[in-house]
Amino acid sequence: MATTPPFRRSPHHRGIKRQRKVKILATLGPASRDKETIAKLLKAGADAFRVNMSHGDHDTHRETIANIRAVEKDLMRPVAILCDLQGPKLRVGTFAEGKAFIRHGAHFTLDRDPTPGDENRVCLPHPELFGILQKGQRLLIDDGKLRLLVIRPEADSILCTAEVGGFISDRKGVNVPDAIVPVPALTDKDRRDLAFSVEQGADWIGLSFVQRPEDVAEARRLIGGACALMSKIEKPAAVQSIDGIIELSDGIMVARGDLGVELLPEEVPPIQKHIIAKTRAIGKPVVVATQMLESMITSPSPTRAEVSDVANAVYDGADAVMLSAETAAGQWPVEAVTIMDRIAVKVETDSTYRERIHLAQTPPDATTADALSASCATIADTLPIEGIIVFTGSGGSARRVARERPAAPMLVLTPSPKTARRLALLWGAHNVITKDIGSFEEMIAKGKRMALRHGFGAAGTRLVALAGVPFGTPGSTNLLHVVTLTGNELDTPH
């Protein structure tokens, strides 16, 4: 079996080439949205940036996106921008004294009365919840710090008992894990934020509060193909409908934060592996997110458990791992990316890594494109191949090759900046924007030239090229060719 060769930087090398295949998605915020820090994060290992629409206004986000694009141009590397929508937030009302204490085992009522609450009751300003809750179902308050069990649901009130008591204060969030909440995944704010994100040229939209495939279909209609759509799996109902959600999405994010609130802690790891395997089998990017290096918000180094968590996601073959508050508001944003990069590199050089990522089955569909993509991986596993060159317009061929998790890195050549940026979240892809090709000879010459220019081998090394004829026709992948570099390709005209 071939191993991934060490990176060689030639004097002609352009941009940033990673020594790993898994990608890093870093959230930007007050600690990191300036150009200087964005450049440092990219150099440290970030491949894509998340803009959290839950915080900040459009003017701030506009400046952040402009800073990303400016740094992207300076460093000559396509960068994906994911604008993450807030989604609906269920919250309790206010309290007469700002907070109240609910005793363990005591009764507590959620009702429609807007009068400020106390230790016995509080307003629940979400009429859609009255009538859907049943006896024995749970309500989790403040990220699960308080746990209420429904004992008598009525049209205007929900009588509960406190399984876990404690302090409750104004406007704390409410999670309803045992029912499908009849609210759309997109609020009015989300619709405004989505339109803004499309206008600003976002590459991905993160859709929160997904419960069923219909939520994804509505978002896709509004996006209209302008961006790729990543569905965030953070509700138990979404786990139950995961096949339909994956089918309608362009990518999936396993958002363990909210998912961990609504499920038992021990349920989350197998669900994470299950979702990663299913998404990989379809050939779509899957991101593992939230609380990966949480302690690094305030500490310059992570815990051993956090390191193992990141490593586990890499061993599972996730396309990307994400940092949230660690880079958005933490004291050590660059260090968090640096350590995540080091963990990923270490895992991918482990002698058992190749075996582990292939535990998930990714059988190709019965198409020429899928058969050739699978053949690329087989050749890379059999011969000393230093890279797989993929010519693509839409990114479909690159996704098919990445699904196979080949031993060799992938050089993706595309005339579309939009495609190059979207694929920044795809496992193993080094994306380069280049002029389209018109013939087989031009394909081979350009592939060799770009391989040398971007550090994919030297004289005498072999690569695999994958493309479609006629060139420029989406979905026509039908050509696979093994090429050998001579080292003189850079002397040919551009």
Tell me the total number of β-strands.
21
- The CATH topology label of the largest domain is TIM Barrel
- Globally, the shape reads elongated
The CATH architecture assignment of the largest domain turns out to be: Alpha-Beta Barrel
Intertermini distance: 35 Å
Question: Can you tell me the CATH class of the largest domain?
Answer: Alpha Beta
The side-by-side strand order for the widest beta sheet comes to 1-2-3-12-13-14-15-16
Mean pLDDT, nearest integer? 92
Q: What is the count of helical runs?
A: 16
Helix content: 25-40%
- Please identify the structural class as seen in this structure: alpha/beta
Q: What summary fits the major beta sheet?
A: 8 strands, parallel, barrel
- Total domains: 3
Radius of gyration: 24 Å
Low-confidence stretches: 1-13
Give the CATH superfamily of the largest domain. Phosphoenolpyruvate-binding domains
Q: What fraction of the residues are assigned to beta strands by DSSP? A: 15-25%
Catalytic activity: pyruvate + ATP = phosphoenolpyruvate + ADP + H(+)
Domain Pyruvate kinase barrel: 20-337
Family: Belongs to the pyruvate kinase family.
Domain Pyruvate kinase C-terminal: 370-483
